[in-house]
Amino acid sequence: MDGLLGYCRQGFEPELAAELTERASAAGLAGYARTARDSGYAVFACAEAAALDRALPFSTLIFARQKLRLLAELRDLDPRDRITPMLQALQGQPRFGTLVMEHPDSDAGKPLAGLARSLGNALRPALRKAVLLGAQDDPRLPRLHVCLVAGDHAFLARSLPADSAPWPLGIPRLRMHPDAPSRSALKLEEALLVLLTDAERARLLHEGMRAADLGAAPGGWTWVLTRHGLRVTAIDNGPLRPHVLDTGMVQHLRADGFTWQPPQPLDWMVCDMVEQPRRVAERMATWLREGWCRQAIFNLKLPMKKRWQETQSCLERFARQAGRPLTLRARQLYHDREEITVLALPA
Catalytic: 301? Predict the structure, then answer.
């Protein structure tokens, strides 16, 4: 089978399928999406898989946690020997740098974790003997992914290190810090890790910068920014955790995040307010258009239906109303729920 394999949050398979279908069509490439609700993945079959892979850079995909180039789909695997058909399917492939054993992040996929580990331990030496895998991991070479979706059903796929997520299943392993005021802190930590490059983080997040956090209570996102050395104006009528204020780097103003504006331009604005996504997108556009901040990270809470269409509409509305050239990156992060996170930088 030729095409792409994408992982996603369980329940968002239709959104990933719609995104891949529309993006492929816009690139002039024919194909079709195949998925099942709550499977945690979607396949887009396409005869021009190489062109599709190039036309859909991973960094531009919103609902995909990982983007892989399909090599084979194996069904009816014999539990006594899953390795032989995998080696046969990989004949003629160039050498891979590492093997990644995976399963969908879904209710049906998670019980396969033990099998994936044990199969990987047996498959690695077989791949090395077949000269399909180097003796040592080589991060410069494409990765081989084996995704078990059932005991007798697997996808074989590859990823390029520069065009994919570096973590298994596309999920960064972040731990909740004991001082974090709320679990929402993980959302901003993941956004800064996933949506910014190493060089951008070093350049755009450092001591002396100033930021606003709209809808800050109880202070999770404010706390993350202070850990990067930023001074934060936290806007919320609700209270912040006392230890967030104890940093001496936070000014808490009891005000409405939809009406407050800073007295002077800021480096950053972040926002995780629970509100209609179009209203949030329009207010975020105002901040960029008026020059109240140089860059922003904000969440858009999605409706229960037509989520891909609403995502497109909100991002287009934001870009149009911002009225200035911007670099936009959006992703449904692992720590997001019914929402996406958007980064806006000066172009």
Answer: yes
Q: Which residue, among 325, 324, 303, 304, has the nearest Cα to 314 in the 3D structure?
A: 303
Check: CB of residue 285 under 8 Å from CB of residue 300: no
User: pTM, whole model, 2 decimals?
Assistant: 0.94
CB 276 within 8 A of CB 270: no
Q: What letter would DSSP give residue 321?
A: H
Spans of the chain below 50 pLDDT? none
First to last CA, the chain: 38
Residue 167 has phi, psi (to 5 degrees) of -105, 145
184-346 to CATH, choices 3.40.50.300, 3.30.420.40, 2.60.40.1820, 3.40.50.150: 3.40.50.150
Q: Which two tokens stand for residue 58?
A: 């991973």
Hey, what CATH topology would domain 3-170 get? THUMP fold (3.30.2300)
Q: Mutual orientation of helices 307-322 and 277-289 as an angle, nearest 10°?
A: 20
Question: What does the pLDDT read at residue 180?
Answer: 85
Instruction: State residue 108 phi and psi, 5-degree precision.
Output: -80, -30
| 218 cis-preceded (ω within 30 degrees of 0) | yes
Which of 110, 129, 301, 305 is catalytic? The answer is 301
The whole-number pLDDT of residue 32 equals 95
Give the residue extent of every domain in the chain: 3-170, 184-346
CA atoms of 103 and 145, how far apart (whole Å): 10
The Cβ of residue 138 has, within 10 Å, a number of other Cβ atoms equal to: 15
